[in-house]
Amino acid sequence: MDRKQLKRCVMLSAAAAAGLYGFATGKGPFNKARFKEQHDALSRYVDNNYPDCSYTSIAASGTGWMSSVRRRGRTVAVVYFSKSPDGVYVFTESKTAL
After folding, report:
1. Which region is the signal sequence (predicted)?
2. ∠ at Cα 17 (64, 7), nearest 5°?
3. Which H or E run contains 61?
C-alpha cells in the first residue's frame, strides 16, 4: 500500500469511528434516532405547554433525560423527564428568566 492509499484508509477509518461514536452517544444528527420515543413525548409536552417554542437535543441525565425549551433563541425552561414503570412520562422543569 502506498502512502496516498494509507492516508485515505486512515481518514476513512477516522470518519467511520466518529460516525459510530456519534450514533452510540446520540450526538448531532443521531439524537432523534437514539431518543425517538423521548422526542415524541417531549414534542407533545412542548406543543401543549410552550406554544411557538422549540427544544434542544435530548441528553441522558441520571435516571431520565433533559432538554432546554427555547423561544427566539433564548432558553425559557430546562425540562427533566423520566418514564414511570407504567410507561407514562413524568416532566419537571426549571424556569429561567426571560
Report:
1. 1-24
2. 160
3. strand 59-61
